[in-house]
Structure formats: structure tokens, C-alpha cells
């Protein structure tokens, strides 16, 4: 055999040998895939459920796992944001605390807090003030208003001004009504008899209203001028922006003094109405016929009530009358005491002069008096309180309406024990 032929034969042999392992590898891979497929089919066949049900269960499981992962991610992100925000706020709050001033550590008073980022522009009012010391006369001029807030659907208003002096509020004046205008010209003057001593403690209130014939008149805005801060050496005439009207009038309704005594072992609350002074006159003769109503409310509902005798024609009555209520220690923490002064009228309905309420939900001097009573059991604690308007106290208490009780239930001993 020639040499080239031998080499060719040796090359073919090598090719045959090389091709044979490749065929083995391919066969092995195919056999592995076939075995895996058979195992999966066997596993699926062993589950006693249809194929479609198994697929649904698997899909739901995967979906639940994804939802859990998503919730965990969101929670982690929120924690990170809150932590960053807290650190940023802490840096802002502590920025001014350098040991040289204490103003940053003082919490602002309630009246200093602005509950609202946007202020509604209500217009402005031009007024004048002049005081004649020889005649003890205060003359207030209502000149004109400009750019008043529109209160009607047509984009206009029917404005007029109401004027009075606090705390006496003996006279109330009103200007003429101007129809369909936001810039009325009034040019009216009003006179009040006011001694110099009262002038320095008085406040002039100018309220601009929108007139409505068939509905309640709406307040557009108001001005409150502390007359004690005015320079009376010359006539005052100036423009001022109208402010949001006060929710309640700061009137001088008088003061009342009473004592409280609570005995926890006997479950007895004793209220002694001592006296009142400088009450607001409710009758035409400049006097009143006052009496005091003492009422307990429990869980925002009227509970027990007692009244004093009536004192005729006086603004400084002396009562010294005692009332005892049965109140358990559990109830004393949920009870409010309402003390109200009323003017008795034989013909017409009795009028409320003023009210005050004490309890764990009260504030200021009222809360302090209640706390002193609880911290000093069996000892009477007396204190003077300034009367507030009935509207203000009623809105704060927000008592629930009483459910009518049948007479048979009222006559039962159980009802008398707990509700009388």
C-alpha cells in the first residue's frame, strides 16, 4: 500500500473514532431530558387533581409570593422615608437651640396658632374715632368699605355695618344697607356716652354684614379696636383690613363664686353656691332677678339638676346654698359640672346670663378648680369664675339629645336610684 493511501486510511479511522464519542454525548443528553420529563409527568400524575387545577394553584402561590415581596419592599421604603423625614425635622427643630435663647423651647399659645395656611381676603374698612373728654363722648365714623368679599351668587353683596362697644354693649348701631356693591360709601357717625375710665378698657367692634331678606345675614368680616391703645390727642381716620369674625363675643357677663367638695368614701359631691357679682343686666330697669342652676352631665348627657332660690332686682346676689349629689368615684371622672346663672321672668321665658362648666374635659381655671377638688378630698375648695356665654359652653359640651322616657319607667325604683 502506498504511503498516501495509508495516511488516508489512518485519517478515516480517526474520523470514525471522533464521530463515535459525539454520538454518545448526544444520546446521553437526550436520555437526561427524557428522564426529567418523565419524572415531572410522574409527579403530576401522582397528584389527585386535574392538570388545570394544579396550574391554577401554582399560579396563585406565585402571585401571593410576589405580593408579599412587594409589601415588604414598600414597608422598607416607607420606613426609610419616615426616618429621613424625622432626621430632617429634628435638624430643623434643633437648629436654633444654641443655649443662648429659650424662645425656641416655648410652645406657642393657642390663640397664636394659625389653623389654615390660606387667609381669605374680606375687604377693608375706613373708619374714624374721636373722643370728647369734656362730654365723655366717643364718636365713631363709618366712612366706606372697599373690595368686600362677594357673598351672593351674582358675585356681589348687600353690605351694612353693625357697631357696638364691648364689654358693656349697651347700644348697637347699624348703617344703611347698600344693594349690589362691594365698595359702599356709608359716611355715617355714631355717638357713645363713655367715661374716660371705661374708654381705656373698652373695645370697638365693627362688623360688616351681607343683608338677606329671607335668610340669616352673613358676616363678611369685622374690626376690633382696643380703645386703650388709641392716641386720643387727635382724630383717628384710617383704613384697616377686615378680619375673620370671632366665634364668640368676649362679653363681661359677671362672675360667680362657689366651692366644691368630694368625699370618695361616701360618694358625695357637694357644691355650695356662695355669691355672684357684676352680673349683666337683663331687665329694662338695669337689673336682674338671678338664680343659679347646678347641673351634672354624665357621658355627654344631662343627669342631675338642682336650682337655688331667686334673688330679686340685684346684680350682686348672695346665695350661700349647698347641694349634694351622689357620684361614685368611677362617675366623677366622667362627670361635668355645669353652673349657670339665669334671670327669672314671671311672664316671658327665663334668660341665661352666663355659664361655666368644670370637669376633666374643662380647661384653664375651671380644670384647675376641678383638679384641686380631686386632689384634696373631704376639703371644700372655693374659687371665682368668669361667666361665659351659654352658646360657647353649650358648643363645648356638645350634649347628646335626651331620649324620651315613659312615665312607667320614670316611676320605677331603679330609675329613681340612678337618674334622679
Q: What does this entry look like structurally?
A:
The protein is an alpha+beta fold and 420 residues long. Among the domains are: 124-241, C2 domain (Immunoglobulin-like); 255-419, Immunoglobulin-like (Sandwich). 30% of the residues lie in helices and 31% in strands. The protein has 8 helices and 16 strands. The chain has helices at 3-46, 51-93, 196-199, 329-332, 364-375, 390-397, 407-410, 413-419, and strands at residues 124-132, 137-146, 159-166, 172-174, 185-193, 203-210, 218-226, 236-241, 255-263, 268-277, 290-298, 301-307, 318-326, 335-343, 351-359, 381-386. The strands form 4 sheets. It has a 4-stranded antiparallel sheet with strand order 5-2-1-8, with no helix packed on it. Strands 4-3-6-7 form a 4-stranded antiparallel sheet, with no helix packed on it. Strands 13-10-9-16 form a 4-stranded antiparallel sheet, covered by helices on one side. A hairpin with a 7-residue loop joins β6 (203-210) and β7. The chain is flat and about 115 Å long. Belongs to the synaptotagmin family. One of its GO terms (cellular component) is axon. InterPro entries: C2_dom, C2_domain_sf, Synaptotagmin.
Please tag this protein with its features:
alpha+beta; Immunoglobulin-like; 4-stranded antiparallel beta sheet; 30% helix; 31% strand; flat; C2_dom; transmembrane; transmembrane helix
Amino acid at each position: 500500500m502506498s504511503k498516501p493511501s495509508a495516511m488516508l486510511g489512518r485519517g478515516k479511522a480517526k474520523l470514525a473514532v471522533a464521530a463515535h464519542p459525539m454520538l454518545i454525548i448526544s444520546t446521553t443528553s437526550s436520555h437526561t431530558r427524557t428522564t426529567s420529563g418523565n419524572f415531572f409527568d410522574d409527579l403530576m400524575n401522582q397528584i389527585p387533581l386535574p392538570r388545570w387545577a394544579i396550574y391554577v394553584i401554582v399560579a396563585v402561590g406565585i402571585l401571593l409570593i410576589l405580593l408579599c415581596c412587594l409589601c415588604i419592599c414598600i414597608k422598607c421604603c416607607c420606613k426609610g422615608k419616615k426616618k429621613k423625614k424625622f432626621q430632617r425635622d429634628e435638624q430643623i427643630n434643633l437648629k436654633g437651640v444654641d443655649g443662648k435663647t429659650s424662645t425656641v423651647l416655648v410652645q406657642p399659645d393657642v390663640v397664636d396658632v394659625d389653623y389654615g395656611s390660606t387667609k381669605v381676603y374680606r375687604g377693608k374698612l375706613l373708619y374714624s374715632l374721636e373722643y370728647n373728654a369734656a362730654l365723655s363722648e366717643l364718636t365713631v365714623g363709618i366712612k366706606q368699605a372697599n373690595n368686600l368679599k362677594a357673598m351672593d351668587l351674582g358675585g356681589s353683596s348687600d353690605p351694612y355695618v353693625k357697631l357696638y362697644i364691648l364689654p358693656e354693649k349697651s347700644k348697637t348701631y347699624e348703617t344703611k344697607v347698600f344693594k349690589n356693591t362691594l365698595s359702599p360709601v356709608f359716611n355715617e357717625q355714631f355717638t357713645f356716652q363713655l367715661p374716660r375710665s371705661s374708654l381705656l378698657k373698652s373695645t370697638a367692634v365693627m362688623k360688616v354684614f351681607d343683608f338677606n331678606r329671607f335668610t340669616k345675614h352673613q358676616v363678611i368680616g369685622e374690626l376690633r379696636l382696643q380703645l386703650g391703645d388709641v392716641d386720643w390727642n387727635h382724630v383717628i381716620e384710617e383704613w384697616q383690613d377686615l378680619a375673620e369674625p370671632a366665634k364668640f363675643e368676649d362679653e363681661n357677663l359677671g362672675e360667680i363664686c362657689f366651692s366644691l367638695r368630694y368625699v370618695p368614701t361616701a360618694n358625695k359631691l357637694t357644691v355650695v353656691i356662695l355669691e355672684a357679682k357684676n352680673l349683666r343686666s337683663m331687665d329694662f330697669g338695669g337689673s336682674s332677678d338671678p338664680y343659679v342652676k347646678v347641673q351634672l352631665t354624665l357621658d355627654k348627657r344631662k343627669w342631675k339638676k338642682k336650682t337655688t332660690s331667686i334673688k330679686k332686682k340685684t346684680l350682686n346676689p348672695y346665695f350661700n346654698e349647698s347641694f349634694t349629689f351622689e357620684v361614685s368615684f368611677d362617675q366623677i371622672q366622667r362627670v361635668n359640672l355645669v353652673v349657670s346663672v339665669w334671670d327669672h321672668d314671671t311672664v316671658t321665658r327665663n334668660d341665661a346670663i352666663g355659664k361655666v362648666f368644670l370637669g376633666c374635659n374643662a380647661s384653664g381655671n375651671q380644670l384647675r378648680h376641678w383638679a384641686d377638688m380631686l386632689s384634696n378630698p373631704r376639703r371644700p375648695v372655693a374659687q371665682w369664675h368668669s361667666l361665659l356665654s351659654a352658646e360657647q359652653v353649650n358648643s363645648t359640651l356638645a350634649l347628646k339629645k335626651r331620649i324620651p322616657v315613659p312615665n312607667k319607667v320614670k316611676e320605677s325604683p331603679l330609675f329613681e336610684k340612678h337618674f334622679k
